[in-house]
């Protein structure tokens, strides 16, 4: 570790962070001095009034003046008594006696990084690893023991070498003295956050004083007005400190990556970074699967073989190679569907993006000292027991109403695969239709269509064109927001060239021309696709059926846009319900809802009677929608909302969206399945 030096960028961000801390200290001391002076004057005036003329009235005024000063002073000092304790209810502590191999492994990394061994070590269920500690105001001045959290989902997703790199990264945050600055900035952020947002207890105390007498309430109100002004100042400081912290945090990540590369090599950290998104997606897929099984009281005894299956299953679906039972994701796979050339530095991001981290690690190009390709689960004495214990802990928070049924991994695999196939399009289309729709053409427009092979129609180049057009369209929208001022930034990069907001007018026409070219390419390909399958259908005497399938889908597609617009209007019209709103404004907004409901209820009535939609309308949905249609609800009557009426309306909006969305998907899938059928006959 001796040869690792702090980068110039790191030094620059450290200086900015130190300056932001100094700004906070100066501002805070100034506010505290003013508060002390104000409190002294208030207390002196209050006592003087009481002494001068001791009556009940002057007593109340005097106490009110004293309380006003003390409240302001207490507000500024209350963070000292606040301790930020990490919730550990979801964690299970492990010891060296239980897991000697794992602890020896951690000790070796700690020794190499030259930091302290964790005070306590915990296991969690997820795909993550972190070093954490309980912090308070005093932790800025006293040494703190760090704790290590290891996600069992993580060790299920990485090799030993990759796990070594990940832990070295976490410990790397504490391997340099300069990293202490990050801790100071973090604690300053916590102090300001406490003063700005964690005031329930303080406001409760102030309210209890105000409730004693109306005279006291008057002085409490003045104190709260002064505190609002203090918070306004602190909010400005908070933005400055937080931006400094985020900038420094991103540099700290690069530094910790370099530490990890020196311990385990660049490649293990790169491969783990690129796989973890897939691993996390797979873990959440299993969690979501069992979330939908709560009503049936179905759970697994061990979630991790299922997590492993989903990870490898999704990798296979995306044609990713597999080594040692771990999918291998390279940077081209990682960015396959992200074709944007627009780069806007997110100043509020605490981590650099994965692509930048991978590029920095590749530049370091530090070789692997001792490659250990076996899965990290080998570091545990009995991984099955550990996984089962973590699974039990994960599901123990669910209150099942009936007897629990354990689902075997084989049952999960069958059910998950069936559900996946039912909700995705056939892989022969190479993801062409995942984010675009089939296009219907009249037969007489096909004379100019190209004759292309199936492989050409759904080639990687064709897919790239689709996703590039999506990216360009989104980039135009973002740059238009920059131009209008809706998105305020100083500069951005596009295709490696830096632009200012004033140059948006130059760039947008260029991108619009590029988008038109891409859409023309896609249209040519779509026409060739339509003709290709039409010819297949003709050779199999299925032309009429093919055209009927396409036209049925096309009708649903055209209806969907109008249907979704009504849904969007209802969602926008009801958004105010989630916020504190004056009575007059609520009543105006409710009247808008009543107007929109006329066409919305008309659309629901059409769906309920339309034969095409019956396959996606369950008995429960029909019952709720009929109830919504049959009654005239009064959503608000001063001073309260009718929660039951609102719940029925909001559920109807969501169910309406489900019906039109699900029917659109099913219609699209039916057409694509028919096209698959044509290729196999």
Molecular structure report:
This protein has 681 residues and is mainly alpha-helical. The chain folds into four domains: 8-84 and 189-261, no CATH class; 266-369 and 403-424, no CATH class; 425-530; 540-681. Helices cover 64% and strands 6% of the residues. The chain is built from 21 helices and 15 strands. The chain has helices at residues 8-52, 56-77, 100-113, 152-155, 160-172, 180-197, 200-210, 214-264, 266-291, 304-317, 331-334, 354-364, 383-395, 409-422, 454-457, 460-484, 504-539, 543-574, 583-609, 619-630, 643-679; strands at 83-84, 92-94, 121-124, 129-132, 135-136, 147-151, 298-299, 322-323, 326-327, 342-343, 405-406, 492-494, 497-499, 636-637, 640-641. A four-stranded mixed β-sheet has the order 2-3-6-4. Strands 10-12-13 form a three-stranded antiparallel β-sheet, with no helix packed on it. Strands 1-5 form a two-stranded antiparallel ribbon. Strand 14 (636-637) and strand 15 (640-641) form a beta hairpin. Helix 9 packs across helix 10 and helix 17 runs antiparallel to helix 18.
List keywords for this structure.
mainly alpha; 4 domains; 4-stranded mixed sheet; 21 helices; 64% helix; globular
Q: What is the topology, as strand order, of the major beta sheet?
A: 2-3-6-4
Based on the structure, what is the oligomeric state of the protein chains?
A: single chain
Q: Average pLDDT across residues?
A: 90
Q: What is the CA-CA span between the terminal residues?
A: 64 Å
Number of domains: 4
Q: State the shape.
A: globular
Task: Summarize the amount of helix as a percent range.
Answer: 55-70%
Strand content: 5-15%
Main beta-sheet annotation: 4 strands, mixed
> Which blocks of ≥5 consecutive residues have pLDDT under 50?
none
Radius of gyration: 31 Å
> Helix/strand-derived class?
mainly alpha
**Count of runs of 4 or more consecutive helical residues:** 21
Let me know the number of strands: 15
């Amino acid at each position: 570790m001796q040869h690792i030096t702090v980068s110039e960028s790191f030094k620059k961000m450290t200086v900015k962070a130190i300056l932001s801390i100094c700004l906070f200290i100066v501002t805070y001391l100034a506010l505290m001095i003013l508060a002390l002076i104000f409190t002294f004057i208030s207390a002196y005036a209050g006592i003087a009034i009481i002494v001068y003329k001791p009556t009940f009235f002057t007593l109340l005024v005097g106490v009110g003046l004293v309380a006003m000063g003390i409240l302001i002073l207490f507000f500024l000092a209350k963070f000292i008594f606040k301790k930020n304790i990490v919730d550990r209810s979801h964690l299970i502590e492990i010891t060296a006696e239980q897991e000697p191999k794992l602890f020896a492994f951690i000790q070796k990394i700690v020794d190499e990084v030259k930091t302290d061994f964790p005070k306590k070590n915990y296991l969690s269920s997820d795909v993550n690893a972190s070093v954490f500690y309980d912090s308070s105001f005093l932790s800025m001045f006293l040494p703190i023991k760090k704790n290590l959290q290891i996600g069992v989902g993580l060790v299920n997703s990485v090799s030993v070498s990759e796990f070594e790199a990940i832990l070295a990264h976490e410990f790397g945050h504490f391997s340099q003295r300069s990293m202490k600055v990050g801790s100071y900035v973090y604690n300053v952020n916590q102090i300001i956050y406490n003063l700005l947002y964690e005031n329930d207890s303080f406001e409760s105390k102030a309210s209890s004083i105000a409730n004693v007498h109306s005279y006291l309430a008057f002085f409490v109100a003045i104190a709260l007005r002064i505190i609002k002004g203090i918070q306004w100042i602190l909010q400005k400081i908070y933005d400055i400190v937080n931006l400094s912290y985020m900038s420094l945090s991103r540099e700290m990540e690069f530094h910790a990556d370099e530490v990890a590369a020196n311990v385990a090599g660049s490649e293990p950290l790169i491969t783990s970074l690129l796989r973890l998104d897939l691993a996390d997606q797979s873990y959440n897929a299993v969690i979501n699967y069992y979330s939908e099984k709560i009503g049936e009281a179905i759970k697994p005894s061990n979630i991790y073989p299922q997590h492993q299956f989903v990870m490898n299953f999704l990798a296979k679906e995306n044609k990713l190679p597999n080594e040692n039972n771990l999918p291998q994701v390279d940077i081209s796979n990682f960015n396959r569907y992200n074709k944007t050339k627009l780069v806007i530095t997110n100043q509020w991001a605490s981590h650099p993006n994965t692509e930048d981290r991978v590029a920095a690690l590749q530049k370091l190009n530090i070789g692997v000292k001792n490659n250990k390709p076996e899965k990290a689960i080998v570091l545990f004495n009995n991984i099955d027991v550990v996984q089962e214990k973590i699974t039990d802990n994960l599901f123990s928070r669910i209150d099942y109403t009936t007897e629990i049924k354990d689902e075997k991994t084989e049952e999960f695999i069958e059910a998950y695969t069936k559900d996946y196939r039912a909700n995705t399009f056939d892989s022969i289309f190479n993801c062409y239709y995942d984010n675009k729709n089939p296009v219907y053409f009249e037969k007489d427009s096909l004379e100019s269509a190209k004759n292309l092979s199936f492989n050409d129609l759904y080639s990687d180049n064709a897919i790239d064109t689709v996703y590039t057009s999506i990216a360009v369209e989104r980039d135009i929208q973002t740059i238009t927001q920059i131009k209008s001022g809706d998105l305020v930034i100083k500069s951005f990069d596009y295709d490696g060239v830096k632009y200012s907001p004033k140059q948006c007018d130059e760039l947008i026409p260029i991108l619009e021309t590029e988008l038109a070219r891409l859409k023309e390419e896609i249209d040519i390909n779509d026409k060739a696709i339509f003709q290709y399958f039409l010819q297949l259908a003709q050779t199999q005497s299925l032309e009429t059926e093919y055209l009927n399938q396409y036209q049925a889908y096309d009708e649903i597609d055209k209806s969907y846009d109008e249907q979704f617009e009504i849904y969007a209007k209802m969602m926008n019209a009801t958004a105010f319900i989630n916020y504190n709103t004056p009575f007059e404004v609520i009543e105006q907004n409710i009247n808008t809802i009543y107007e929109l409901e006329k066409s919305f209820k008309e659309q629901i009535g059409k769906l309920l009677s339309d034969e095409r939609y019956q396959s996606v309308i369950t008995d429960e949905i029909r019952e709720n929608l009929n109830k919504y249609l049959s009654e005239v609800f009064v959503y608000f009557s001063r001073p309260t909302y009718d929660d039951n009426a609102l719940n029925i309306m909001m559920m109807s909006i969501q169910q309406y969206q489900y019906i039109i969305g699900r029917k659109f998907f099913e219609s699209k899938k039916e057409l694509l399945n028919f096209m698959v059928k044509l290729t196999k006959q």
